[in-house]
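Long-time lurker. I teach an intro course on protein structure, and each term I like to show students one example going from raw sequence to a predicted 3D structure in token notation. This year I'd like something fresh instead of my usual example. Would anyone be willing to generate the tokens for the chain below so I can use it in lecture? Attribution to the forum is fine with me.
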Amino acid sequence: MKFAIIAAGEGSRLRKEGLYIPKPMIEIGGMTLIDRLIDRAKRYEFSTACIIVNDIYPELANWFRDKDYGIFIQLIVKSTPGSMHSFYELSQFLRDDDFILTTVDPIYTDESFRYFLEFIDTHPHADGIMAATNYVDDEKPLWIICNNRMQIVEFSDTQKESSLVSAGFYYFKPLVINFLEKAMQQGMFRMRDFQRFLLKQGCSLIACNVGKVIDIDHTSDILQAELMLKSKNS
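-- Reply from a regular --
Happy to contribute to a lecture. Here you go:
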């Protein structure tokens, strides 16, 4: 399995709050966000880490120079309009194996990640598995509506009867790349629209509640994430 990381955002909300470090280079628990994800990919024996970073901050591309992470890395340096376009750029590497796709934002424990991997193993017929959380800290969360078997029936911008929101990382089989190309041709640019598109195409998508996940969108999120990791390790 491959591990794909979208780290091409500008971090505009953090910059407005006075934090000018590129988001992937923010340290939490003694590791940068990007290194935390690459380390996780290595420890859980993924074959490749496929990464896209933007070309706005040269220090991002330089971050990988002369580093040996112990895992094969395929790097793209390119700014994109959004996460779905970044996914499309990475898709050239993702056609031949199952993969996990994640933004650089979410912080969660190793326990949560192990549970997610175990959930994947026990649902081999799913085309995609969406990590979900009932910890809502996003201004515009994507609500996940499921049936009693956790099969996703709708993605909603409003809560409705759901208590789960997208946690920002996903498991996909390579077949979704064909649908990604169709979605791009139709002018879609948001990941949530692509997920809705997959449902319309008849894909089997399942939600997996991985527990607490904190997205690093504001400076206050950094402290919350530090506290969460510290409490899990104590």
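Some talking points for your students: The radius of gyration is 17 Å. Helices lie at 12-16, 33-43, 58-62, 83-90, 110-121, 176-185, 191-200, 219-233.
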